[in-house]
Design a protein that fits this description.
By secondary structure, this protein is an alpha+beta fold. It contains four helices and three strands.
Length: about 150
């Protein structure tokens, strides 16, 4: 369980530090080209789910996130000593979900800033990235395994 908690904390710290940096250094809607025309840091606040979908459903997202987190905590507890890779995968999802949950609880809006122009139509954040990568890794583990829990 230690690797789970350590990974959650690392993911959460990375997410919070990057969001706090964006808020402290940028104005809302400001964009900073990192690789002009390809990758920009663009500060927005998102009222929807990942990538701005289903805007203005704050309490629905909070409720769903809490239920998913409870299920993930249970899974992580069950597998923490048996499958380290699965434990880290679940921790990535947990840390990312907690990062966006903190935003939703504090302001109702999620801070987004990663803007890959021409490749991805939505601005997102590192919490979203950890959740998506975690879900992809979890799916891969489920597909390759006869039993993970």
């Amino acid at each position: 369980m230690h690797i789970y908690l350590m990974t959650v904390i690392i993911v959460l710290v990375i997410d919070r530090v990057t969001k706090l940096w964006v808020v402290a250094k940028m104005e809302l809607a400001e964009t900073i080209p990192v690789i002009n025309g390809f990758f920009h840091i663009t500060y927005i606040k998102n009222s929807g789910a990942a990538f701005g979908m289903l805007a203005n459903m704050r309490w629905v997202f909070i409720s769903i996130t809490v239920l998913i987190l409870i299920a993930i905590f249970y899974m992580a507890y069950k597998v923490s000593k048996e499958n380290i890779f699965l434990t880290i995968t679940l921790a990535m999802i947990t840390g990312g979900a907690l990062g966006n949950l903190i935003d939703r609880l504090s302001t109702g809006l999620v801070i987004d800033f990663l803007d890959f122009r021409g490749i991805w139509p939505y601005i997102f954040n590192l919490a979203d990235s950890f959740v998506i990568v975690g879900v992809l890794l979890l799916t891969w583990q489920i597909l390759k395994s006869d039993k993970i829990l």
